[in-house]
Structures are given as C-alpha cells and as structure tokens.
C-alpha cells in the first residue's frame, strides 16, 4: 500500500482510503502548501503575516497551522473532474470530491513535487504540483493519456475552489486575454491605520491556464447546483455555464473538451496563487508560459530544496532509517531553518532550535539567526518571548505571555553550533539589545542571560515558571509569581554546564567555574525539592502544590524533567535507573514515549489550571516527539545505545505502526496521539503537522549519539553508539568543509573503539587537523556486542 | 409557491429550490436562530458576547451576523435522515443534506415557531422548532404518520452537526442516563486575564432526546464515511455505530427504528443547545421532559413574542401590507428593541433607532434605553460610538472608530418618543456622564450634544465627518480632520429643528430660537457648499475633493443628503423637484431606491478611500432599506402620498419581485442588492439579514405618514396621506393607553379632512383629551383623489 520509490527520494501511497489524511508538503521562503492524498490542500503565504488564497467556504479564523486538520467535502483542495463524454461517467482527480475509486491510484510525495498517478481502463492521468523558488504560485501539470485501443472523448475540468474570500467584497471573472480566472476580494472594513498596512495585500486569487479552456465557471453555486460536489449540476451540461461571480462565492473551474486517439497524450499546465492585480497575473502568465519558464522554475525549485543538503549520509542495517536520513531529514530541517515556520515572530525557543538544526546544513544562516535573536535580548538579561523577523512585526498572542525558559536555549543551541563549526569568533561579536543601543559581546550577553536565570529563582533556588516554560499548557501554575518549574531548574543547570564548557574553551576559566557552581546549585535545589522518590516532579504551583508527582491522579509523571535531570547531571546513577523505570512503566507506549501521563482530562484548578488541550493531543499526554527527542538525546548521552535507538526509531513513521499513525514517512510530525492507556483507540494517530523542533534534536541524536561524529573544540570526536544488533554502518559525514567516509564495524577481538584515518591508526577518539575540501576514509573498529 | 396561512400569521413556502435561501428567524433575549427553508441554521447566544453551539466544520472567525450568508453542504443545520428500512430509500428532512425532493414540501415561517410539513406516498412528517422564553435551548418536535395502507418500517435519524468546536479540545459522548449526546470543548490557549473571563463559558453542546434512541453516532467522520452527507456510510448499516468522538469533530446523530401501522403517528421531541456541564443538561431534561414542561415553554414563548404587540392594526386595500403590518412589523421591531441585535455594545445610532421603534410597542423600554445611552455621553457633549449594555462590555472594532453623527439621533429618536407618549418629564431626568459622575438633566445634556454638533464644523460651517458618519464605508474621506459631510450638515440642521420644537414645547423659547438659528446656519452652509446644481453632494474629502457630485464617475449621487435636505428644510421647492428627479433617474430601480449610484467598483484614493464593499451589496449602491425609509419618510413629510406609498411598498418582499429577492415577507431585510444599472443579474437579491434600523422608520412612515395618526403635544394629530387609489382604510391605533378604531374614507364633496370622534365632529385635525383605557371610534373623511 505504501513504499519508497526511486531509492527513497519519494514515497508512494496506493490507496486514498487506507490513510485518508496522509499528506505531503512543499514550501518556498514565502509560501507553504500541504496536500492530502485525497487532494485537500492547506496553503499559506506571507504578506508579511500568514495569508490565504484558497479559503474555506465560510469565514475562517486566522490561526497557525493546525495539527490533525479536519477535512470536509468543501475543504480547499486542487481537483480535476473527468467526464467521459460518451458514457457520461464522472471521476475526480485525485479522489475528492467525487470519491469514485480509480483502478490505479498512487499518491507520490517527492522532494520537490507532489503528484498523483491514476488509471482507469484505457486512461492514465498524472497530476503534479511543484512550486517556484521565489514566486507565490503553484505550478500544476495535468497529463492524460489514452492507454486503450479506442478513441476517447473526454471533458477535463480543473476545479480549484476559492471559498469565502471576504464578507464585504468578493467576485470573480474569466479574463480571456489571460486565459485566467481572477477572483477578487477586499480586506473588510478597517481602521485607518490598518488600511495603510493592508492596502498592498494580494487580495486576488487566480487560476491561469496555459491553454485557453473551452468553457469555464466562476460561480460556486452554479457549478454545484443541487448535485453538490459529488455530482455537480454543471457537469450534466455539455459546457460549463461561463458565469461570473458578483459578491458570490467564487470558484476557478475550467473545461477542456478533447478526443484522444489510442496512445495519444495531452498535457495541460496551470498556475494558481494570490495576486495583487491583473498586471501581476499577466506577468505570471508571461514568466511561466512563454519559452521554458515553467520547467526552469520547477528545476530551480528542485535545486532550492536540494540546497538544504546536510552533513550526514548513511548506509546501515536499517533501510527505513537510511531512507529517512538520506532523503527527508535535511529537507524538514531546511524547511524550519530557512522559513521559520512562516511566522514573523517565532517563539524564541523555536527560533533558536530551528536554527540549531541549520548548523548541520548552512551554519552561516544559523550564525546570523543566533545573532539576530541575541540582538533582541532585553538589557536586563532576559530573552523576549518571540523574535521579530521584520521591522513591522509584532509579538502576537502567545508571545505576549511570559515564559521563563527562553534564556536556556542560548547555550544549548550555541553549543551545537560551536561543536559543528568551531567558530568561537562568534563569542566576540558585538550586538545591541532589543531595548537599548548599548552594545555587548555575545559572551557578555550570554553571561547576562545566565545571570538572569541564576537570579530568577525562589528562596529554595527553584526557577520561577511565570505563565509557562517549554510546555505551553502549564500556563496557569505560576502566574501569581510564586510557582516554580523543576524542569526549568534542571534545564538551567544543563545550560550553565554547557555554558561553562564554552567559557572554558574560550579561555575564561573563572566564568566556567562560576557557572559550574551555579549549575550544581540548581541541581541541588532540584534534588532537594523536586525528586519525588522515584522520579522528578514537574513543578510546584503558586499554591504550593507539587505536580507531576506520584500523588497526582492525572499528570503524575512528565518526561522532560527526567530527560534534563540526566543531561544536567542532577540524577545519580540510582536516580537514573529509577526514573527510567518509571518512564518505561508509565510513559512508554507502542507509539513512542508520552510527554506526560495520565493525560489531563479536566482542569485542575487546585494546582493552577493545568491544561486545556485534549487528552492525548498536542502536549497533553501525546507522544510529543520533541520531548521524546530530548529523552533519546539524554539516553545517548548516558551511553544507552540500545534504548536510544529503539526510542529514536519510534519517532519515525516507517514501521508497522505507520498505518495506525496515518503518516507517510516523509517528515516527523510534532506528535502522535498519546494517552495510550486512557484512550487506546486514537493513540498513535499522527498530527500530520510538520512544524516541530523534534527534527533538530533527531539530527543531534544521530550526530552526537548514534553515529557519534561530533565536533569537539578543534577536533571531530568519534564515539559511535550503534545498537547491539548492528554489525556495521557506513556514514558520510561533512565536517567543517572536509568530507569523511566512515565505515564502522564491530570486529572480534576489539576491546575499545579504534580509529584508522586514510589507513593510518589514530590514537584516542579525536580527529584533529582535518582540512576543508579534503576527503577522508575513516575506519572505526568497534567491540562486538556483549550477548 | 408561497403564500400566507392562518390569515397571515405565518408564511408558507412550498419549494426548497425556488428560493433556496429563504429564511425565518426566532429569538429570545439570550439567543437567536435563523433557518433556511432547506434546513441550514445560523444560531448565536450571549455569554455575554455572541457565541455558537453549532459550528462550521472548520475554525470560524467570530463576526456579526452576515448578510447573504453563504451556505454549503456542511453548513450547520438541523436535519433528520429518513430511511425506509424495507426499500432502503433515504430522504432527509427538510431538504438538506440528501436533497431528494419530497412530493409535498412546506416551509412554514410562524410568529413563534418555524416548521416544515413534508410528504411522500404513505408518509407525512412535521419538523417544528420553537424556543423557550429564557433558556438557551431549541425545542424540536418531529412527527411522523403513516398515511398509507401498509405497515412501514423506518429508521429516523435526527442529525445535528456540531462542527469544529475548538482546535485544542473537542469530544463527544452519548450519556444513556440522560438520553443525550454531549459534545465538549474548551476555550483554547489563553492569557490569564482571559481565562477568568472565559471560565464560565457554556462550552458544551447537547442534543437531548425525550425518548432514548435505539442507536447513536457522535463521530462525524464515522457517520459520513466515503458516502458523504448525501449518502452517509452510517445509514448503510442496520444501526448507527454508537461511537464517541475524541479530539474528533463531533456530531449529534441518533437513530430510531419503528414500524408504523396504517394511520399510526409517532412524535419525538428534542432539545438542542449549549450547556456548561452535565448537571445543566440534566436540569434541561428535567425541566422540559417531565410533565408539561415542553408545551408550557412553547406557550410561554408564544406569549413572549406576542407581548411585542404594537400600536397599529390595519385593514386596507393592500392585503400584503395588512399582513405585514398586522403580523410581522411589530415582531421585527420588538426583536430589535428587546435584544439589541444580540450585541453588548450596539452602535449608538442603532441603539437609539432600535429604541425609537420600541416607542410604539413598549415606550417604557425605549425611555430606559434613551436614558442609558445619555448617561454614557461624554462630558464634552459627544455621544460615544457605542453604548455598553453590561458592566464588562467593551467597545469593539467599529465602535473604536470615530463617527461624528451619533449626537444627531438624540432629538430624532426622542421626538418620536415625545410624540407617542407626551412624557416631557423625561427632559428633567438627571443623569451622569460616561466619563464623569457630574449630573445634568436630559434637557441640558441634549443642549450640550447640539452645541457639540454646532461647534464641530469647519470654517465653511460644514460638519466634520472624521472616520465616518451614518455610512460606514465612507471611513477614509475625513480621517485627517478636514473632510466634511454634507449629509451630516443637513442632519444636524434637522436635529436642531426637532430639538427647537421640543424646547419650545418644554417652555424654553430662547433655546428653541437659538437652535432654529443654528439649523438655518447648517442649511445655508449645505446650500452654499453642498448643492451641486441638481442635487446635494455627499461630502468634501480631506483633499478638498467633493464627492457624490455630477462630475463623479462612481458614487455620483447619494440618497441620504437628498432625504435629509427635504427633512431639514434646506431644499427649496425647486431644489426638491430637482433632487427628486435626480433620484428617480439615477437611484430608483424595480427593487427600490438605491443608496448611491453608480456603485463604487474600486477604491477612489484621490477622494480618500471610499468603500471596500462589493458593488450593489450592503451600503455600496444597494437598495439599503434604512436609507430608503428615510427618503419615504421625507416624501410623506413633504406631502407626497403617492410617491411615498409606492416606495414604501418596495421595501416589502411581498410583490411580484419577491422571488427575485429570495425573501419571505416575514421581515424587511437590511438591503436588496443594488447596482441595478451596473449588475442587473444580482440586483434585487435579499440580504436575508433581519438586523436593520429600516423597520423603525417604516413604522414612522405609517404612523406619521401614510395613516397620519401621530402624537403632537397633548393631542393626536390626524393627517392621513393615503395613496390616490385607496378609497378607504381602517386602522386600529393604540395611543397613550386609548384605543382608536379609525375609519378613513374618501367621500365625494369633501374638500378637506374632517374628523368625527364617537359620532361627534371635531374641529381641526388634533384630537385632545383622549383618555387612557377608553376606546374611540374615529371617522375620517377625505377628499376624493384628483384625477
């Protein structure tokens, strides 16, 4: 039903009903489109805030990209109705809206295009989407071929619903000189100041055809009639009605009548997207439909996606992992790092982590992002809750709510950058503040950030949580200014230790010593007040109520404090054993490790309101892959290669449970539905949402953990942690301009890891003196796994 | 296809396709529901801001009630699927979602219930909605009867879609002990301060059945399957699947299996609405399904609607007008005056006018409203842009935008109140200000309001428009503080004159004289700078650009300045002839008088941005009935009885063009689509929106104009203006507690109006000394119409 094609560079799904919500996405720096296998689409573009050009049929709320997006018959999508003009049969490409099964169906999620291949006796179709690198336009190709022995008379009807564009002004018309349907809307009633912000909006939506259609329909109501989307009235007529839409819901529908002789193939191309005016539509037509504009654009887009090539290629006993890492991992990291999830004010922790992943792809971009973020630090040391990417951007709802963990991510993300690049010069860069023109070096600024964390504690030395830390739903446990976060206390300790190491490496031993002392203080406080006997609690609320502890009925254990207690060194070996046992018992599921359990099913007012998210969804008891990745990273750091590998693999939607998750293995979703013990029916379901910090930690789990090929000062440290059942693995690792072809192999009689570079034995596990532009052969001999 | 039933107390439509958007509405003080003949529904309730309990299938934007609401297959509605268990045939009540035609179809819009009667050979159905007077609950009754000669095995499936309740937490379950499906949601991620505002929200939606169903379905996806709403998969099975919904779009669907012998009838009752918790659902069940709770509630609701009885019953040669006035006019006025369009911050001009209509129904309510509004006046004299009805209410978007006409409505509305009640004591009431505890009398306050208008003019004496006056789309012509409104200048003159009369009647001749002088000054300024040769212009923008003038290509003439120039006395008889000719030529259409023409088709930046509304819609060139009513009122004031009647009747959707308007004659919509000369296809289409100030002016056109039975100081003044082709009319007029049975008749030889009260001739046209509680017979003899 599903499998890789072309050596994994694309994935193919052969049924539209088995995984009806399976989806794939394409993006460029200004837009994004997610398509389900049935043809529904969710697209956004930036102007500069996220906007839409294909709308729901009712007035939509503006929102960020939703997980588990609900679909319904009139959801926006990109379709082609097909009518056999002789028999009168009606189908639709790819599956919606008619839902009549094709004999052959394939949904193919590629790197830089998404396509369908469909067949009926005697007919074959291809329906392909690519994007351009820079324009706000979808590039569609429809191919039809007569694979039979008789001539076929067909009508093809590209059908692009546009939906309810505006409650004040929407209309649509066919423009014969452009072979385009242009639907217009106007931003509704607005204040003067909004008007000047909005007046350049691309409020039009256009469908431009390379070949002028034989007929068209612009009025949704006229298209559907009483037959509805499954049997549109318009298709009962010889020709579409050629109507316009005047303050009526518009649609872009066209009709091509053709007769295909046996073996004959035809191809049609379309552009769909937003536009400011007719002149822009004309310019798009000119650019893409004269000479080779269209194919040049799809080529350029392919190169754009390929330019997000990362530092790792692998060949292991695990083909699915190989496929994911070699074809999809970089792509998802690149999406995050290059476009920041299509927001103008990314949350600081997201922005820093999304650029942590870019360290392995385009470290210069990561560097620039870290500097941009730090230049918005407050003079008092605290990072803002969101980073403004444009001069006119504003911190929106969630970023107006104080979360106290933002500073932690500075050393966490910077350490990955320094490991990968060795670029310690970044520490001496001088930057302003968000609220002051005064300048300071990155070193000084992060010292300030660490000092802020150090001081932002209660009398017990526990970190205040305010209205949230990493976990949004905990937004009401500390709003009175007393509640504390055990996780944040541990994360602060870990951040301090990382920072101490960086200071040390930068010739600042006193700073290092200071931060190590502070880290121990945080760890001590967490152990004294946060250790609940068998695991670490999550926090203590304004009311003095500990939560995430054994006495809780719901939310009894949270994953994050356990992971970060391992990373920070707070947990002794005995504590580590104990907390891991608790995680196994209470959080592990066939679909991964849940973020907390049991999921909250109601508000817990006595603690402070704890979560309003649905049990098992998002951060309330889901298998939240971002948190899972922290845990896996901690397991690897603790040297637990087998456990690490097992849980790492669960994040990937390419094993036996893939079907249950409803997810193609082309990206790791932000979560799989959790609450496995409470609501087993829905557990494991994929969010289908590709926005997630998971992917960057997944990268680090591979680099620092599984393959152990991590930068360390001026060297590459080699510390593989292959699972016991792997005898060998090949890795191509790009590192600071050099390329290493690494072969790792367990060999009898090897008692400790030994390295051989270009045939020469290397002492220890650090490779120094690697030169940019050179290619190295590295043999890594590993001990055999103990039985 | 359509006609009155029961002497006009309800209207019947017998085809679901001829007028697919024909709708009717019910309301109580806390909720409102509008139903189309096909079963789609739009409902809102107050908590205290408008909220929903049945949602679209995607995340909806919050908005005020929309005109020309677009419907689509998954739009919320109230339906019953019907399956013939023997034949397998599927229908749906009332028409959607299956859309299979019934042999008999009737949609019956009643005063206090909306119902359908449907028939197939051998089967008859009734589907009836009423509301309760106080609760947030829909009361549904389903009746089925076997009208054939064979037993029939049926499944009935009440199907109430609930839609996408919340993007963070939605679920649904059947509760057997309550025979109810309860769908739950939680208000999504929110700031601390919002949480405490939102925590008591009724975030649940319930369907409660009197009789426990045989099966149920709560998961929308499981109900539909691949068959979709037209052929739901769930109906192919013997029984519904009895599933719950967990972070899945919920639905309230139930199944009843029954066998009906010939002649047998069954009845099922349901409650649908929002609830806070299960306890509230249980309480609703107890209240409505034990003893006679259900029928007592529908009775009480009938009485509530009937309590909005007004001051006029008529019997004229115009049966359609009689029907509307005797059955629907009061109801629509009452809806506005009693619930303020379900808002918490009604625009000041709406609030005052909605209560102007209440003057004829419940003058005490109108009085209280005028005092409430005035007590929010700013100390500087200006009325705020919206009136806050609750302590926690806030002025929302549009009411944060300065509109400079709010003061005008004080004397305009108060004069109707004083005419109807003679209650001059209101002028001596002492009230605080919105921004000060200082108190002043109503008289003093309105003097201040008039002084504010007097001073808020430019060097030419023209009234500044700021970001708008009565007409919202003109929001950008004066934002720089220079633009002026000719309409507002004329309206200020009219307000001054009305106020002068009130002062005069209150023994303040000097005030009266002053305000008459100011009125003349306004009129002079309008004539000097606003008269465009053949009609009055609309205004002069910040840039000094006159608009609404002959040199304009679009927006060349506006109706309002013409109407108010007639009312204010600015227009000389010659000017009146000229401007009426211009209105006839440019604004009159078969569907009424357009508010401006030609409609704007684009922004006019050189003027100031003029309108973003669609040409022909809402205020951009529509037949905006509110403006039409001003004009009709002005025509009557000018003594133009025939013209007044002709245009008055065009507002009513009960003539030959009713079909084109798509509107049942149970309310006057806020507009009929205009731009008749530009876009004839859509002209005349009804907005289907029953929120409109039109209705109050329609009342005044009848009281002050057509029937001329208007209060005047301590008297009732009798000045009928029957159209020439009416020989007679009977009117029952309630006036200050008395009731007059009036018979008007043209008689040969009568040269001027003569009155006979209880058989005695009355000198002049003023009836004084009418006593509350008494019933009078009034004969009015009128001259014959000149040929």
UniProtKB/TrEMBL annotation, chains A, B:
Listed InterPro entries: 6-hairpin_glycosidase_sf (IPR008928), 6hp_glycosidase-like_sf (IPR012341), Gal_mutarotase_sf_dom (IPR011013), GH65_N (IPR037018), GH94_catalytic (IPR033432), GH94_Enzymes (IPR052047), GH94N_CBAP (IPR037814), Glyco_hydrolase_94_b-supersand (IPR010383)
Gene3D superfamilies (alphabetical): 1.50.10.10, Glycoside hydrolase, family 65, N-terminal domain (2.70.98.40), Maltose phosphorylase, domain 3 (2.60.420.10)
Q: Does the keyword DNA repair apply?
A: no
Looking up PANTHER family in the UniProt record yields: CELLOBIONIC ACID PHOSPHORYLASE (PTHR37469:SF2), CELLOBIONIC ACID PHOSPHORYLASE-RELATED (PTHR37469)
* Protein name as it appears in the record: Cellobionic acid phosphorylase
Q: Name one GO molecular function term.
A: hexosyltransferase activity
Q: Which GO terms describe its biological process?
A: cellulose catabolic process
Give the UniProt keywords, A-Z. Glycosyltransferase, Transferase
**UniProt-listed Pfam families:** GH94_b-supersand, Glyco_hydro_94
Q: Per the record's keyword annotation, is DNA damage included, yes or no?
A: no
Boundaries of each Glycosyl hydrolase 94 supersandwich domain copy? Answer: 73-288
- Glycosyl hydrolase 94 catalytic domain location, by residue? 311-708
């Amino acid at each position: 039903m599903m499998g890789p094609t072309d050596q994994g560079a694309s994935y193919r799904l052969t049924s539209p009903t088995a995984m009806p919500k399976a989806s794939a996405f394409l993006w460029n720096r200004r837009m994004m489109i997610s398509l389900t296998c049935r043809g529904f689409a969710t697209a956004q573009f930036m102007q500069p805030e996220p906007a839409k050009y294909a709308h729901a049929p009712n007035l939509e709320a503006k929102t960020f990209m939703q997980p588990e997006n609900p679909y319904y018959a009139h959801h926006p999508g990109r379709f082609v109705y097909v009518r056999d003009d002789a028999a009168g049969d009606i189908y639709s490409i790819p599956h919606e809206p008619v839902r009549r099964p094709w004999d052959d169906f394939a949904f193919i999620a590629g790197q830089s295009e998404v396509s369908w291949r469909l067949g009926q006796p005697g007919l074959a179709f291809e329906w392909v989407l690519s994007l351009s690198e820079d324009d706000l336009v979808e590039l569609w190709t429809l191919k039809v071929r007569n694979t039979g022995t008789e001539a076929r008379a067909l009508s093809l009807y590209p059908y692009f619903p546009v939906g309810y564009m505006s409650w004040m002004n929407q209309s649509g018309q066919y423009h014969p000189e452009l072979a385009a349907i242009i639907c217009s809307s106007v931003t509704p009633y607005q204040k003067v100041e909004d008007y000047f912000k909005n007046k350049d909006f691309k409020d039009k939506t256009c469908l431009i055809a390379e070949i002028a259609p034989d007929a068209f329909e612009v009025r949704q109501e006229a298209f559907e009639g009483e037959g509805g989307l499954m049997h549109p009235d318009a298709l009962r007529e010889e020709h579409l009605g050629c109507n316009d839409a005047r303050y009526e819901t518009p649609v872009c529908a066209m009709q091509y009548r053709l007769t295909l002789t046996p073996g004959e193939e035809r191809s049609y191309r379309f552009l769909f997207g937003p536009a400011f005016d007719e002149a822009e539509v004309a310019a798009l037509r000119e650019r893409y439909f004269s000479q080779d504009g269209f194919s040049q654009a799809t080529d350029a887009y392919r190169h754009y996606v390929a330019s997000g090539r990362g530092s790792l290629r692998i060949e292991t006993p695990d083909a699915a992992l190989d496929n994911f890492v070699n074809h999809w991992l970089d792509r998802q990291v690149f999406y995050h790092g290059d476009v920041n999830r299509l927001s103008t004010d990314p949350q600081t922790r997201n922005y820093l982590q999304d650029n942590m992943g870019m360290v392995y792809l385009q470290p210069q971009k990561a560097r620039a992002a870290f500097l941009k973020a730090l230049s918005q630090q407050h003079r008092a040391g605290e990072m803002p809750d969101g980073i403004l990417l444009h001069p006119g951007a504003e911190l929106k709802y969630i970023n107006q709510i104080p979360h106290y963990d933002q500073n932690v991510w500075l050393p966490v993300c910077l350490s990955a950058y320094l490991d990968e690049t060795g670029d310690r010069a970044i520490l001496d860069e001088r930057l302003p503040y968000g609220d002051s023109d005064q300048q300071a070096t990155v070193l000084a600024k992060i010292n300030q950030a660490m000092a802020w964390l150090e001081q932002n504690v209660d009398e017990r030395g526990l970190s205040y949580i305010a209205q949230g830390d990493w976990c949004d739903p905990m937004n009401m446990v500390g709003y009175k200014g007393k509640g504390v976060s055990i996780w944040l206390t541990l994360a602060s300790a870990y951040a301090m230790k990382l920072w101490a190491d960086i200071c040390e490496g930068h010739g600042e031993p006193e700073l290092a010593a200071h931060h190590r002392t502070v880290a121990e203080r945080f760890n001590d406080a967490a152990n004294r007040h946060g250790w609940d006997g068998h695991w670490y609690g999550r926090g203590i609320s304004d009311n003095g109520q500990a939560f995430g502890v054994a006495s809780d009925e719901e939310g009894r254990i949270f994953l994050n404090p356990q992971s970060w207690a391992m990373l920070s060194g707070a947990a002794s070996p005995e504590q580590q054993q104990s907390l891991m046992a608790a995680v196994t018992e209470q959080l592990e599921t066939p679909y991964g490790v849940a973020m907390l359990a049991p999921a909250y099913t109601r508000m817990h007012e006595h603690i402070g309101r704890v979560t309003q998210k649905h049990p098992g969804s998002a951060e309330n008891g889901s298998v939240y892959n971002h948190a899972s990745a922290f845990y896996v990273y901690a397991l690897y750091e603790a040297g637990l290669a087998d456990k690490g590998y097992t849980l790492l693999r669960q994040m990937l939607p390419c094993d036996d449970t893939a079907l249950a998750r409803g997810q193609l293995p082309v990206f790791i979703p932000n979560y799989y539905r959790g609450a496995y013990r409470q609501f087993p029916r829905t557990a494991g379901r994929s969010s289908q949402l590709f926005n997630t910090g998971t992917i960057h930690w997944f990268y680090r789990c591979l680099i620092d953990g599984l393959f152990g090929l991590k930068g360390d000062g001026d060297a590459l440290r080699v510390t593989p942690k292959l699972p016991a059942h792997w005898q060998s693995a090949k890795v191509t690792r790009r590192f600071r301009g050099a390329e290493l072809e690494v072969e790792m192999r367990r060999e009898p009689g090897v008692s400790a890891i030994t390295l051989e570079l270009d045939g020469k034995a290397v002492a220890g596990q650090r490779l120094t003196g690697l030169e940019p532009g050179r290619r190295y052969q590295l043999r890594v001999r590993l001990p055999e796994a103990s039985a």
